[in-house]
Design brief:
180 residues; mainly beta; four-stranded antiparallel beta sheet; rod-shaped
Amino acid sequence: LHAVIVDSHGTVVRTFETKEGAPQEDFAWDGKDDSGAVVPNGVYTYHVEAPDKAGNSVSHEIPNIIVDAEPPSVRMSVDTAAYSPNGDGLKDSITFSPEISGEKGVQTWKVDIMDAQGAVVHTITEDHAAPITFDGTTKDGAVLPEGTYTAVGTAQYADGHQAVGTSPAFSIDTTKPEAS
């Protein structure tokens, strides 16, 4: 049995050989080359060839093996530092905008609104990452109390990775200013 991993240029980066027998039913490649170094990010192909004692052989390829060792990341931004969700039509909501690396691999996306003590006061779950407008209410529809909050965005990737990003702090201020 002769099996190799080749890069997109056709260069062999890893070789697997056994003297006898068929390939294992399950095969795992650790993303390393023959010297034990991690291969660069890119697209690879697994090619296996197995001859029999009579000189006949069969081969098979599994293309499009993607190595992406870049850790995923999430950045959260807000469109305002303070808002007033009191229904008066002025700054009644805030928009959270995510910047996600490898967005195409995101399986689930959620934003937790956390108070100054780190308690989750509201969670918004979406099937894709996009800007989210938040009206400053709890799941029951009550306006959150005045205070400082953050939005924590979490992207769960299909490959099992998870990336988390926290927004800058923002304030809820529903008390009208007074003058004397």
